[in-house]
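FORM 7B: Structural annotation worksheet

SECTION A. Query
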Amino acid sequence: MADITSYDVEVTGTGGDASTQYQVTCPECGDRVHCADFGWWSTKCECGYTWSVTIMAEGSKQDDDE
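SECTION B. Predicted structure
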């Protein structure tokens, strides 16, 4: 199974039964898929990838010598 990553993710709503909702754009086919924390609908794009959203934070620190 092949995995791809999209950085084109937009929060489209919060609250409700599905909780936080997102719109993800597939970098291969350009299809825009609606995802949610507790979504009950299909998240498959036109080219066949099934999408989910993972929230991640990344930190960096520069050396004091710079």
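SECTION C. Observations
The beta strands are 9-13, 21-25, 32-36. Residues 1-53 form one domain.

SECTION D. Sign-off
Analyst initials: ____
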